[in-house]
Amino acid sequence: MSTHINAPAGSIADTVLLPGDPLRAQYMAENFLTDVVRYNEVRAAYGYTGVYRGQKVSIQATGMGMPSIAIYSTELMRDYGVQRLIRTGTCGGLAEEVHLRDIVLAQAATTDSSMIVNTFGPGVSFAPTGDFNLLRKAATIAETSKLSFHVGNVLGEDQFYNDNLDRGKLTDYGVLATEMEVPALYLLAAKYRRQALGIMTVSDHLVRDEHLSAEERQLTLNQMIELALQTAIS
Ligand SMILES: O=P(O)(O)O[C@H]1O[C@H](CO)[C@@H](O)[C@H]1O
Ligand SMILES: O=c1cc[nH]c(=O)[nH]1
């Protein structure tokens, strides 16, 4: 048991998928895993362990934002010994070439969060980076499956409603999309020397003001979930 995860030792797999939304965690477990056990209900941040193509995989909801994913990813790595963490999220497209329904693999993450500066102090800009092996596997599977996907730098923001940040300048520097958790996940995976990757479906495009309908969101999330699960077991 840890402070926010009420699971007995040994009940969480080595590889954990991390959706922000607890209902997405439930959907993923019920529709993609067999032999499912719900190991966590604390704060309704549901956590499940089940089997995907013969291998044990867990799914843990992280909530929204870096403070929240930092709690769950720290406890998973420190208290449950989790080795691989794959965020399965949504993101808002920024770059022109990114379209609704595409998948973004976060090679690196830029952030306005104070977590980085508070970890290393002023003068050091640590670069939160995705695990190369997971990234390579995910990109290969996405290519083989003929998915429309992008690999690159994402923005992990502290605020969903953020008038203060110049996203346009970041887009000029190649940032593909925005979300709210990957930098903290990569920072903590580096701290604990574990593997982490962010896989996100583009549910909105912030520049073009485009948004997926609830139905489309569901369909396109399925492709990302399959990709994350195949990456997890490969
Ligand atoms: O769909 P999830 O995984 O929650 O991710 C995105 O959606 C939330 C904002 O609506 C933030 O958590 C953002 O990162
Ligand atoms: O953080 C996010 C996630 C999805 N869509 C957005 O616009 N922002």
From TrEMBL:
Its EC number is 2.4.2.1. One of its GO terms (molecular function) is uridine phosphorylase activity. This is Purine nucleoside phosphorylase DeoD-type. Keywords: Glycosyltransferase, Transferase. Homohexamer; trimer of homodimers. The record marks 217 as: Important for catalytic activity. Residues 16-228 form the Nucleoside phosphorylase domain. The keyword Glycosyltransferase applies. Belongs to the PNP/UDP phosphorylase family. It is an enzyme of class 2 (transferase).
